[in-house]
Protein 1
Amino acid sequence: MYFDHAATSWPKPPEVLAAMQACLERAGGNPGRSGHRAALEAHRTLQEARRKVARLLGGVDPDRVVFTLNGTDALNLAIKGAARPGDHVVYTAADHNSVRRPVHALTLRGVVTSTCVSVDGAGVVDPDEVRRAITRRTRLVALPHASNVTGAIQPVRDVIRAAHEHDALVLLDAAQTAGVLDLDPSDPGADLVAFPGHKALRGPTGVGVLYVGSRAELQPLREGGTGAESDSPLPPEALPARLEAGTPNTVGIAGLSAALDGVRPEAALAHERALLRRLVACLDQTRGIHVLGPADVERRVGVLSLTIEGIDPQDAAAILDESFDIAVRAGLHCAPNLHRALGTYPAGALRASFGVSNTEAEVDALAEALKQIAAQG
Ligand SMILES: Cc1ncc(COP(=O)(O)O)c(C=O)c1O
C-alpha cells in the first residue's frame, strides 16, 4: 500500500509508460536542433506538452511554460533567475528546502538579504506578517501553495495582494497542489509558478515546470545550445528557449503530456479529502496519536502528518513497511523550519499522503496498523 504520493505518485498510469515508449520509438530526435522527421516529431511532442500545461494553468501563453528537471530546478530558476544583487527575498517557515536552500545560498554569498516569515501552530502563514516583512528592496516573495508536511493550504491570495502592493514578485511553489488545486496564475495572480510533473500530475520523474509571468524577468541558470541564434554568444531573448538550454527530457515530457490527459483536479481533490476525512475520523479516537495541521480537512490537500507518543517516526515507518507492507515517509520532510514551528523538531513526524489510486480499504488498513503501533507506544 503506497501512501507516499507527496514524495512522488506511484504507480504511474499505463498511458504514461506507453507514451514514453512510443516517444523513444517514434520521436527519438533532438527537438529544435535538426530538420529531419525524428527531430520535428520530438519538437511537436514538446510543444503539445507545453500547450497542455498552459491549459492546466488556465490558458496562459504556452511560451511562458518552461520545462525543468523537477520542482527543485524550477524553484532554483525562479529564485536565482529573479534575484539581483542588493535585493531582499521573503520566504516562509512552511517552505520546502528547495526554496529555503537557494534563498540561503544567495544570502550567504551576499547577493540578497532575506526574511523567513513564521507560521502559526497549524503551519499556516499570516499575510500580515508577510506584509510586515516586505521592504523597499523586496524583489520576491515565495510561498508554498500547500504544505508538504501538513497539507495546509496557504492564504495565497492575501499574500499575493500584500506582495503586489509593494511591487514584489510572487513565486508560488505548487509542488503539492498541481493536479489537485486550480493553478490559474491570473487568479490568484502569482508571477512565477513552479511544480514537478511527478507528484499529483502522475508524470514520470525528471520533469518540472516553471510558469514565468509577464512581470518576471529571469536570468538563465545555465547557458548553452538552444538550436536557435547559434552565432550569438548570448542566450536567446525569447521564452522558453532562453531558460531551457540543452537537450530536454523529451521522453519524460511525453510521459507528462500523456499524464495530463488524465488529470482531473476537482475529482482528485474530492477523492483525497474523502480518504483524509476517513483516516482522521479513525485516528481521532486513538489514544497517543496526534495529527498535525488544520483540523478542517477542507483547508488541506491529501497530506497528513502525525506523531505517535513514545515511538520515533522512523521506527513507526519501518514497522509499517516491514510488518504491514505500507509505505509512508518519516522525518523532517525537507521542511525543518515547519517542524520547528509545529513542535516536532528534530524527530519530525510520520506522513501519509494520498493519491487517486488509494482506496478506502487501504486507508482502513493504515488506520488499523497505526492503532496497533500506538498501542505499543
Ligand atoms: C513543497 C515542495 N516543494 C518542492 C519540492 C521539490 O520537488 P522535486 O522533488 O520535484 O524537486 C517538493 C518535493 O517534495 C515539495 O513537496
Protein 2
Amino acid sequence: MPELSKKTALFTDSVIRRMTRICNKYGAVNLSQGFPDFPPPEEITRALANVVAVGGPHQYSLTWGAQNFREALADKYLRFTGVRPDPETEIVVTCGSTEAMMTAVLTVVNPGDKVIVFSPFYENYGADTVLSGAEPIYVPLNPPAYRFDPNMLEDAFKQHPKALILCNPSNPAGRVFSREELLQIAFLAEKYDAFVITDEVYEHIIYPPFTHTHFALLPGMKDRTLTCSSLSKTYSVTGWRLGYVIASARVIEAARKVHDFLTVGAPAPLQEAAVAGLRLDDGYYRALQDKYTHMRALFLNGLDGIGLPHNTPEGAYFVMVDISSFGWANDLEFCEALAEKVGVGAVPGSSFFKNSENRYIRFHFAKTDAVLNDALNRLEKIYTLKK
Ligand SMILES: Cc1ncc(COP(=O)(O)O)c(C=O)c1O
C-alpha cells in the first residue's frame, strides 16, 4: 500500500480528546476537555427554535459568513473595543476558532517558514504549523508564573519567523498577558516584520483585576494581526462550531479563499441563531465573569483544602496542579490512574509543553457546583496514587 502523509506522523491525536474517551470508559468526572456543562443563554436557544420554526436558513450561507452575523459581530467589537471591523472586508466566519487558527496560519505561512509558539501551548497550534508545512520555534512560558524571557523571545525572532501565535488569555497557563508583555511582542513583530496570530477564545473569561487587551488594537498592530476567536466559550456553545478571523482587508481576502476550500462555511442556521448572542447587552458578560469567578473560587479552594499545589489562573478556566510529590515518571499514566481509581479526568501537562515536563496535570472548572463538588470529593482519594 502507498505511504501515508509524512505530516500526519509528526503529531499525535489530541491527548485532550483522548482523555475524554478515557473518562467515559471509567465513568470519571471529566475535568479534562474544557467545555461547560450548563446551557447557553436562553436568547440563543430561543433564536435557534425560531430558526427551525420559520424554516431556515438551512442552506449554505455566504462562504465568508452570513451578512447579519458579520454585522452583529462588528457591532459587538465596536462596543468592546471602540473600533468596528468592516463586516464586508475584514471578517471571515469560520467553524470555531479551531478552523480560524488553521485558516490564519495557512493564509500567512509558506512551507518551510518558521512560526513562534509559546510553550506550554494549546495542542492544536503544533498541528496547525505542521499541517501548513511550517516549523515551530518554541519559546518557554516558565512555570509557575508562565512568563516569557524577552531575550529568548528576541532570539526566536532573530530566526525570522513569518508569524507568532499568541493565546491570550492562555490555555493551559491561565495567563492574561500584561500590556507591557504585549507591547514587547508588538515591538519585536514590527522589528522583525512578522504577523501575529491571536487566539482570543477566552476574551470574556477573565478574573478581576485582569482585563483583556485586543492585540490588534496596540499601536501599529492592526495590519499585522489576525485575530481569531469564537462563540464557543463566551456563549457556552462549543458544539455550534462558530468562530471568526478579523484582520485587514488584504489578509481577509486571502483568508476567505483558504476558509472556502477548507469548509465552505460555518453552519447557516446556527449563525442566524447566534446573532441573538452577539447582541446581548453588557450585563450578560458581567454575569459570565461573575459565574466563572465563583467556579474558580470553589474549585481552587477545594484544591487548597485537599492540599494540592496549583497556579491561580488570571483568565480562561484551567488550573495546573503540581503532581511532582506523587512520584510518577509518566503523567499520562498518572491521569489514566486518576480517571480509573479516583474517578476524575485531567489532562497530562506534558501534552502542552515542548520540553519534557512531567510535573503538571490540567483540570478545567467550567462545571456546575454539583459536578465540581463531586470531583473535589473524589479527589480526596488522590493520595492513594502516591508511589
Ligand atoms: C485556546 C483554545 N483555542 C481554541 C479552542 C477551540 O475553540 P473552538 O471551539 O472555537 O474551535 C479551545 C478549546 O478548548 C481553546 O482552549
